[in-house]
Design goal:
The chain is of the alpha+beta class and about 350 residues long. About 35% of the residues lie in helices and about 25% in strands. The chain is elongated.
């Protein structure tokens, strides 16, 4: 904690300016805090007792403290008005920074230590009660290792119609990283697209291994005299969609095609399928919002391919999609499809 309140007053004092001979309390829980500073330690306040305080997380590292101070300079340099560690009594929370741009306020949470997704959800919901947007910025400790899907989902937010995570880059300021994934595992760039032939081979391997994840779809298609390897080409997603799904993207696409084969569907009905899929737990963004983004981008992709069109707010297939009888026939079609894509 970098800011504390002088005992018996409403005066707030930074740790750098604090006098060790004076008494200070936490602005949140109003219990005593002690100023800690020296040649080898970044100045900060710490609670004198070990009781749990909702106002802050104890054990702040020097990286965290210095990072918050550097962020003050960064946001002020781009025109923001910054308040460091403001106590918000209505929600019993203290963001690392509260930044105001014109009439818009944004809470900044600089995250260096591990935190549960439930805690991220709780704090994000608290700020939302005050009408505050919140940006979770990941510090160096998160950037020193490969970020897993569960970690990305914890802090990701929708920005410019993409799912992104904010990283603190020191002198470079805040950098937004786009999160693109194919089948919820392989990270790819915006202009990349999945290899449908490789995906088909993987599906074939799953069938041989009797993978339980595809059994429900396999059983459903078998009753229709269809096979998993015979799914239409459009179900092999040709561009990366927003990440966060544990369910393979091609499986959801196949389910949606099956629904549209029966009758035209409103987007809300299609969305129920996406929302019921298995997702990683999102912390800073509602899963429903990510699911809607995923569906919107898929429908736009299919529309550009001439697979679907929208009429009277209902999506319908333009023509009957082709299902394939066996693995070899499908491979021949996919090779032709990829060659066509490459020649455009």
């Amino acid at each position: 904690m970098y800011i504390a309140q002088m005992l018996g007053t409403t005066v707030l004092m930074t740790a750098n300016e604090a006098d060790k001979r004076r008494n200070y309390v936490c602005p949140g829980c109003q219990t005593p805090v002690t100023v800690k500073k020296g040649r080898l330690k970044q100045a900060h306040f710490a609670h004198t007792s070990l009781q749990k305080c909702q106002a802050l997380a104890e054990g702040e590292s020097a990286v965290h403290l210095l990072g918050k101070l550097a962020m003050v300079d960064f946001f002020e340099s781009i025109g923001g008005r910054v308040v460091l560690e403001p106590w918000l009594p209505e929600i019993q929370q203290r963001p690392d920074l509260l930044v105001t741009f014109d009439n818009r306020q944004v809470a900044i949470e600089f995250q260096c230590a591990p935190i549960s997704v439930e805690r991220v959800q709780h704090r994000t919901a608290g700020f939302a009660k005050l009408g505050l947007d919140v940006v979770w910025v990941l510090g160096p400790t998160y950037q020193q290792r490969k970020l897993q899907q569960a970690t990305l989902a914890k802090f990701a937010r929708i920005r410019h119609d993409t799912l992104q995570v904010a990283l603190w880059r020191g002198k470079q300021g805040i950098q937004w990283r786009e999160w693109w994934a194919v089948d919820g595992r392989t990270h790819v760039g915006r202009e990349d697209y999945s290899d449908p032939i490789r995906q088909l081979a993987k599906i074939q391997q799953q069938l041989v291994r009797r993978d339980r994840r595809i059994r429900p779809l396999q059983k459903q298609l078998y009753q229709q005299e269809r096979t998993v390897t015979g799914i239409p080409v459009c179900c092999h997603i040709s561009k990366p969609l927003p990440g966060g799904l544990k369910t393979a993207h091609w499986m959801l696409a196949t389910q949606l095609i099956g629904m549209l084969e029966q009758e035209p569907c409103h987007a809300d009905r299609l969305l129920t399928v996406i929302e019921r899929a298995e997702w990683f737990a999102f912390g800073a963004t509602p899963t429903s919002a990510v699911a809607k983004l995923w569906l919107t981008q898929l429908l736009v992709l299919w529309q550009s391919m001439g697979v679907v069109q929208v009429t009277n707010d209902r999506w319908r297939l333009v023509t009957n999609v082709q299902w394939f009888a066996d693995f070899n026939q499908k491979c021949r079609e996919l090779r032709s499809h990829v060659h066509t894509l490459g020649s455009k």
